Amino acid sequence: MPRESRLYPKISRAPLGVGLLLAGLAQLLCGSLTARAQQEPPYFVTYSSALEEPGNLEIENQNIAAAPKNANGFFAPTIEFEYGTTAWWTSEAYLQGQTTANDSTVFTGFRFENRFRPLPREYWINPVLYVEYEDTSAADKSFLEITGNTSITTQQVANAALRKEVERSIEGKLILSSNAKGWNFSENIIAEKALNENESWEFGYALGAARPLSVTAASHSCAFCRQNLSAGAELFGGLGTRYNFGLKQTEQYAGPTLALNTPHGLTLKFSPELGLNDNSARVLWRFGASYEIQQFRDWFRRSK
Amino acid sequence: MKGRLLWLPVALLGLSAVCFAKANGAWLRKVPQAEHERVNPLAGAPEAIAAGRNLFLDNCAKCHGKEAQGRHSRPPLRSDRIRGASDGDLAWLLKNGEVFKGMPRWAGLPEQERWQIIAYIRSLNSTEPEVQK
After folding, report:
1. Cβ-defined contact of B104 to A53 (cutoff 8 Å)
2. Chain A interface includes B57 (CB < 8 A)
3. Residue A144: left if φ>0, alpha if ψ -120 to 50, beta else—which one?
4. Average pLDDT of chain B, as a whole number
5. Do residues B58 and A35 make contact, with C-beta atoms less than 8 angstroms apart?
6. B-chain residues within 8 Å CB-CB of A217?
7. Which of A229, A288, A298 is nearest to A263 (CA)?
8. Do B51 and A301 touch (CB under 8 A)?
9. CA distance A58 to A60
10. What is the DSSP-derived secondary structure letter of residue B19?
11. Which residues of A touch B108 (CB under 8 A)?
12. Is ipTM strictly over 0.85?
């Protein structure tokens, strides 16, 4: 039986207080931090075929801020722990929260995901399979992806009411990614199914393209060398449900993304994402910081 | 009977040799001829070697060691195998990795940067003594 969209937007990736605390903690702990691998494109929502290198642990704080029309402004942070289990398998855990002006601050849930690269070689298009379990409340405003039929107007509902609706769902993504002449092009197709509610399959998408400002490295070490800066653009949104497939009654966003890989393991990212229709917020401001702890698993080995 | 038993150590030796060959540099046999014949356009250029060193320290040293001496079960990059491989072989390995044996792909790095890394690895193998693992 066809069912109308879910009441609240599905969202996801990034808190400031907790994030800065964890980032600081990571910095204190990580004597082994060195420059971060520079092959990850500067996307917030779109996944590429770049997996975490085996044994590395990346801690990322990703934040989103917005002031939707007719609703209170909000700030939603997500903390991500991404571990390279093998060269073809990456695991990731997310913790999410949000604070809404004139309302409250709430923890909104967690996610656990795995990404697998099924093919052993690099091809023109490289697939990655993504499987996620999430346990989030409707108060989640992280906008890590958008699925189903949603509208930013649901942000008018108070946190006290939103947090009562908890959804446990599984989500799958087909990630397609290509690398050519320094460019990365990535396409994600998203399908999500609630496990504890009688909802139909919901769909979404994300597209991204990015390139470092220079495809050759400088012969000297420098923080602001062009090869450490990358720029790109993202487009993402909902595709409705199994019974109401399409762009109607969905949120759609697009915007440029920028990233700076500093020589000491810190990566900074920024993106203003512009709403493309009346269901979307005018602008979602995103910013994030991540640290990579290189060969984290060696901490637990006896031999050096 | 004795004659038959003599074949046993010979067969075991042969099997060991096959296994050793498979575990060490088996990827070299997977490189297509066209890739094998590629030549590093930045070979020997001092700037490329210096840039390649920075990239190596950023991306490769965590597994292969700062001096490319190898760490834990990850192989040294100063070895006869590396010296024997062509530029194209190394470029193919960096691009494709050996993901089921722990070597990730580096296709996300621009090709020019991968050539810079290869220029640096070549310089390690031509000017400095081999580090035995």
Report:
1. yes
2. yes
3. alpha
4. 82
5. yes
6. 51-52, 54-55, 113, 116
7. A229
8. no
9. 6
10. H
11. 38-41, 48-50, 179, 184
12. no
Residue among A255, A99, A236 nearest A173 (CA): A236
Residue pair A63/A286 in contact by the 8 Å Cβ criterion:
yes
Beta carbons of A38 and B59 less than 8 Å apart? yes
- Are B55 and A217 in contact (CB < 8 Å)? yes
Rounded CA-CA distance A173/A151 in Å is 22
Q: What is the pLDDT of residues A155-176, one digit of tens each?
A: 889 999 999 999 999 999 999 9
- Measure the CA–CA gap between A269 and A168, rounded to whole angstroms: 29
Contacts of B46 in chain A (CB under 8 A): 219
> pLDDT for B44-98, tens place per residue?
899 999 999 999 998 899 899 998 988 888 899 999 889 999 999 999 999 999 9
CA distance B64 to A264: 19
Distance in angstroms (rounded) separating the CA atoms of residues A76 and A106: 10
Q: Does the distance separating the beta carbons of A41 and B108 come in below 8 Å?
A: yes
Residue of B nearest to A215 (CA): B110
Both tokens of A230, joined, read: 């990358």
Please, are residues A259 and A24 in contact by the beta-carbon 8 Å criterion? no
Alpha helices in chain A (DSSP H): 16-29, 159-162
Going by C-beta distance under 8 Å and a sequence separation of 6 or more, which residues neighbour residue A98?
A15, A74, A75, A76, A77, A105, A106, A108, A139, A140, A141, A142, A159
Instruction: Find the CB nearest A34 among B58, B96, B106.
Output: B58
Q: Which of residues A9 and A240 earns the better pLDDT score?
A: A240
Q: At residue A12, what is the residue type?
A: S
Tokens standing for residue A30: 């990580």
Residues in B touching A41 (Cβ below 8 Å): 108
Give residues 94 to 123 of B whose Cβ lies within 8 Å of A: 95-113, 116
The pTM assigned to this predicted structure is: 0.83
Decide: A115 and A90 in contact? Cβ < 8 Å: yes
